[in-house]
Structure formats: structure tokens, C-alpha cells
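Technical note accompanying the year-one report. For the benefit of new consortium partners, we illustrate the data format agreed upon in the data management plan: each record pairs a sequence with a C-alpha cell string. No post-processing was applied to the example shown here.
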Amino acid sequence: MQTEALSLLAEQVVDLIETSDAIKERDHALALGEAHSRFRDVEDRYHAIVDSAIDNAIIAMDANGIITSWSKGAESVFGWTEAEMLGHSAERFFTPEDCKAGVPAKEFSTAQAEGRASDERWHLRKDGSRLFAHGAMTPLKGTEKAGFVKAVRDVTAEHATRTALEAARATAERVTAAARLGTFDYNLTSNELSWDDRCRALFGLPPGAPITYAEAFIRGVHPDDRVSADAAVARSLDPSGNGVFEIDYRTIGIEDDKLRYVAARGQAFFEDGKAVRLLGTVQDVTAARSAEAKLRETEQRLRFANRATNDAIWDWDLVRDHVTWNEAIERAHGHQLAAVDPTGAWWIDHIHPDDRARIDASIHAVIDHDGTDWTDDYRFRRGDGSYADIRDRGFVIRDETGRPIRMIGAMLDQSERMGVERELRHHATDLAGQVEASEAEVERLWNASPDLLVLIDADGRYRRVNPAWTTVLGYQQRELIGMSAIELAHPEEVPASQEALEMVQTNSLPGFIVRVRHKHGSYRSISWVAAPSEHEVFRIGRDVTAAMEAEATLRQTEDALRQAQKVEAVGQLTGSVAHDFNNLLTVIRGSVDLLRRPSLSEERRVRYVDAIADTAERATKLTSQLLMFARRQTLKPQVFDAAANVASLRDMLRTLVGSRIAIAYDLPEDRAMVLADPSQFDTAIVNMAVNARDAMDGEGSLTIAVRTIDKLPSVRNHPQVLGDYVAISIIDTGAGISAADIEHIFEPFFTTKGVGHGTGLGLSQVFGFAKQSSGEITVDSEPGKGTTFTLYLPLTTEQESQVVGQSDETSEMTAGCILVVEDNSEVGEFATQALAELGHDSHLAIDADAALAELEHGADRFDIVFTDVVMPGRSGIELAAEIGRLYPNLPVVLTSGYSHVLAQEGTKGYELLRKPYSIAELAQTLNQALERKRITN
């Protein structure tokens, strides 16, 4: 569509140019008046069409590629004005690499040979930035001189979108490859099924093998799963459902006859109530399903063993203090399982009183002191009140931090043995059987544990591992026996693993995490705890890979959200600034156009000039407010009494708020001295008062209170700060501020007022002034109950600054010679002309080095150096310091619209004239400097 639109526009432009040329040729054949009239109509139509295409650049060139016409759209797209481009080669807006490659010449040649040349490529703007544009060039026909016309449209955003989409597709492919996922695409419209090679492999097919739904999918699914798999596809394609395709099934390899377990997930898409496409992924879960089957088999064997044994097996949840018993507690000891209180206290209560304290101490010694195995003998009360002789064994399971979470054990009833032993002490062989039974229990725990269990010998090699190594890391037990304990560690973590292995030879090792290589080559994060015994080390490891990945994903998501919020805030600020400045520029440009009219009366001329001056002043205030909010305004701090300044504003505030608002002042008797910019302070008070007036709709009561405090309250998640401050509160009885708006009231351009009622910069100026003055601003409001704004400024003990009286008169000035240092030629020319109007001689230097060179030829020629702050090379601050060192009696006046150096470090004691400045302000500042020099000399 963009290409067709550009082509049509280019053809219209060519037709208009040809018509214009044709009219010129007919000027000699037609009556002169009629020909000129028709030419003007066509020419007006041509300019109207071209200039209205503000989003398209229309450029006319002669046969040599020299620009002969440059539309308003071209100025908007490239930044150069028509005056800057006429007579220049079209290569000016091509990139250097394209010019070097001869692209412009090729484009002219193609357009000449084929009647049209279209392309998409990067071009240059005036400011040096680049845009990606679509262009169409056609030759001019029917004119006296050969030439070309080119239509260009900025498609940078579309190009970025296409690039991002291609990157996203590549990323998706890499992600599915990394996750070992196969993908499928079932097009219902064309009845075509597409698989990638990973999907083909899960059905036992070679790469690139042809596939269909019936001959590949249905045929490859296990016969017992075909009906359910086909039904799952049908359900996902049902328009009345949610379109989700999710099923696990088995496949029998079509060519390799191999059994696989597959997890399939997908989503159907619908158009006009009909399924048109099913997209999804498949994953090989054979290993996981096999492990699950083995685990179920092990659990079933454990349940059978629990039922078959006469030992009372217990499982104690140490976190919840909940004990689970097997059926032997009833069968062997006579306690009905349903009547047993499932707590540790019930077990302790049924131990013989003479054994109770000893057993309670011994088992907690293991639990509370990092032990793992516990064994002890005691007498246990049966359901009929008799006691059984018990040998109890337990094993403590701990989490990755070493905290005990579970203990599993078995009560071996050795009453009969103990009875025989009491009668026949020499029958000690019974003990061997008890030991064997205990080892069997430990073996069951070893085999059933989902965590990695391993015994390491004194040489640091695996001596025994449990089956969990196969489930978690894919290794068979026989593959690991004899392997070094650090062989599977990630190369980057081998030194730390070696150090931990050496440490655990003599001391228990708290939890530490190491990446361990899976049999397939990937790495899993394992959290280890370890404890030494006589000649070996016992270690327990838990797979924490998923938990760590989830934590990393959360951090990335939080970072992305914060970045998105920053981008959104910048976008809102940029749009608002552009809106307000466009309004101001509209007034200025309109007034200038009206001033150019020849028959303009003096009254109107004055009115338009005043409009330009007023609008420039509003733009200055807008810029100042923005800099204040950004804490980049150049302040002139002085020590003054905040209460006195508030009192001095009484008359102004009365006029601003109107007669229907009652104003009350609560000012302290003692002086409240602060170090801040007095004019910005007054502006902040006025802005808050005007905001209060608007909130009360012109009627209510306004209270302004000043007091000193000894601490700054906690504000916007910042803690309370101890110290002496002056608090200035503006309290109104207005409508209050809603909770939703109160978070945004200090943002630039945010306002709850109607269109045309305020810029939304008043409170942002207060916020910026407070922050830049090391203070704070708070708001306390409730809808319907009014609002209180409080400005906090640090209290100072310095003496009040003495401000030299200033005069607005510019006529009584002492003439002098001024050295003007300004890198901007237009501003420098204005300054020298203004100085000439004021009766001063002046000399312009373009930078600091040029100014110093001029002073070296005779510094006594100049009475003042008037320098910009921001310049190439040395700044105005650095120049002033050098002049102060070389010529201490020569005063320096600085001027700047904004400088981060001034915002951060101040003016270093030099006089500052803020840009934009009026001639009166220039005269006043220079006159003061000359007067100070005269008094000093």
C-alpha cells in the first residue's frame, strides 16, 4: 500500500510539473492574461498538493541530480529547509556508504531506463541521524529540460517492527531447540500437517520425511492411545471450546519401532466460528515417565512391606509435629490406629516413666544438633497397659539449610528377645538379628529417597550412590562408583568443590550449591549438605534448578517492567512539552506572518510585537519550570527569612485568590532562616496558593503557616530524617484530591483542571525547587475535606544575605567595551547589536581560547567579559576562573539557558544572566558589574 501511494503521488507531481511546463509553452499562443491566470491556478494546485503531503518528501532534480524543488514534506522528513537544499546534489541525503557504492547514480540510471526506480534504504537527516525510507523515482517528461522527481516516505517504525518480528521468530526457534521441543502446524483450510525434524524424530521418522495426519500422526501413535489422541485433536478444534490441545500419549516409531512417551501441547485458532489452524509443541518425556513408573513400583513395594512387617513404622513431620503410624501399631501393640493422637507427645507419653526423660533427651540431641541417625532402647506401653521392650531407630531428614523437617523410623518389638536375654544373658547372638533388621530399614530409606545420597571414601571417590542419581542426573549407579567427587562439577566451580570436599573430611558442611553435569551434558544446580564419619563422608543433594530459574525469571520480569515504566514516563513528558511549545510557536509564527503584511497599521504592529514578546516570556517560564522539576534550574541561593518573604506576598496573594477566599497567616515571631533562591521560593508559594484557589473554585478559606521543626517526616518510602527544618504549609478547604490522582500531582503537565486552565507545571516547579534546595514537599488530602501542601527547607544559622538594590533603568549607563564570548553566531550577533544599542563597544570571540588570546593582546581594552557557559572546549566557568587568575580586576558575567555544571555546582560566585534575556535585563546586569568594578577600583 505504501509503495502504491508513493507511486501515485509521484505520478501526480510529474503530471503537475508537465502541465506547468505545457502552460509555459502555450503562453506565446494564448492571450497573455488568460495564460497567466491558468498558470497561476495550476501552480497553486501543484504547491497545494505537494505541500499538503507533509508525511511524504517530494523532491525534483535536474538531469545531473541537482535539487530544484524541495517540498514541505521533505523538510519534515529530512530536516533541511528548501533554501538549504536547492542547488545541492541529491547525494546529500544518501548515506556515505551508499554514495561510495554509487547507489544514487544507479537509481537515476534505472529511473531513466525503466521509467521508475523504487527502493527501501537508509537515508540521512540534517541532524546526522538516519531514517529508513521507501522511495520512488520517475523521470520528468514533456519538459524543456530533463530531470527527475523522487517521492520518499519515512518507514523507520515499520522497518523496526519487521526486524523485531524476525528476531522474535529466531528467538522462538532457539528456545524450542534449547528446550528440545518439536513443533507442529496443522492447517485445517488446506488440510496440511507440518512437523519440524524434532517432531518427526519422536515418531521414528528421518529428517524431511513426508507426513500427513493419518499416515504419520495417527499411524505413529500407540494403538492403545490413538482414539484418545484423535479425540483430543477434535476437542481442540471444537468452536464451542477453548481451543486448548493438551494430551500425553505413546508413540511407536514408524521406522525404528521404538516406544516413546510424548507430551503434546497446542492451541487452535478460529475464524468465523471455524477452526483454521492448530499450532503446538511436542516433548519427549520418556525418561520422566519411566522414572515415575519405577517410583510408583518402589512406593508400592514399600506399602506392601509396611503391611507385612510387625514393626511399628513411624513418619514424624517435625515442622507440623504430626506422626503417621503404620498398621503394626495396632497389630503389635494394641493401639487402635484411629484412636492414636498423631503427635510426638502421644509417643513420649506412652514410654515408661523411668525411660521417658532419657529417650526425650536422646532423640532431641540428634534432631537439634545436626545429627541424622538415632537409636535407643526403651519400654513402650501397649494398649492393654503392659510394656513392650522396644529398640527404636530413626533417620532425620533436613532441608538445604540443615533444618530438620522429617524423621522416619521403626519400633522393633524385642520383648521376647529381652525376656530371653534376662533369663539367658549368654544368648547375645540375638543382637545380630536386630542390627540386620535395622540395616534393612535404612536400606529402604536409602532407595526411596528422592534426594541424591552418596558415600565418599577417604580418597574423595564415590563409594555408594542411591537410585535418585538416575532420576535426577541420568547416571546408572555402576557408572558413578569410583568416580572422583568433583569430576561432574561445572569447570568454573571445581576449585570451590575441591575446597568443600577437603573441609568436610573433618567438619560438617552447611548447605552449598554446585552445578553438576547431567549425563546428557546439561547442568543441574544441586544444593548439598555433608557430614563426615570415621572413614567416609555422607552427602545429601537436592535439585534446586527449577527454583533458581524461577527466581532469575522474576528478576528479569521486574527489570523489564521498570524499564517500560521509564520509557512510558519519558514519552508522556515529551508529548506534553511538544504540545505546549507548539501552541507557543503557533502564536509567534502567526504574529510574524501578520507583521510581514505591507499595509499593517502601527497599532496592529505593536499588538503583534507584544504578542511575540509575551509568548517568548511564557516559553521562558515553561522552560524554567521544566528545569526546576528536573532539578537542573540554576538557582541563586541566599539566606533569607521564609516567614518575612511569605508576609511580603500578602498583597499579591490577596489579588490572586480573589475576595471570596479568606486568607489567614500563622507566622512565627522568631525568624525562620533558610538558604534558597528567594524568587523561586516566592514562585513556589504563589503556585501552591493558586492551586488552592482553583481547588476551592474561588470560595473558601486559605491558611498559610510557617513553623520550625526538628525532623523531616517519612515521605514516599524515604525514612524519617532528624534535623532542623522550616515547614511552610498551604491549607485549603477545597474539594480534596483522590487517591488515584495524589500519586501523580507532582508530575509535569498532570492536571485535573479543564482544558485551557493551567499547564500542569505549577506543582512540579514546587517539587523541583524543594528537591534542588535539599528540601521536601508533602501533600495530605482527603476528598471533600481539603488539602494541605507542606514545603520543607533546611533551617540555617547563617546571617541574612544583603542584596544590592537593582534598578530597571537602562538609560543611565556607563559606556564600556565588552568582550562577548559566544559559540553560537546568531546569539553572538544579537548580543553585540544589543550592546551597540546600549552604547557599548564590543568584540566577539567564538570560544574560550579565542577570548584568552584577545585578552593577551590587551586586557585593559575591556571593562567586562560577557561569556556563555556551555561552549566547545573550555566552559564559561573554566574561562572565568582562568581570567580571575590572570586578570583579577576584570569582572566576568556568565549567561546560560541551562548547564548541568551550574545546576550541580552553582555559579562559583560569578554574576549570571539567564537565557533568554531581554535588552533591559542585559543592560541592568552589565551596569551592575560596571558599577561594582568602579566601586572596587
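Partners are asked to follow this layout when depositing records. The longest helix spans residues 545-595.
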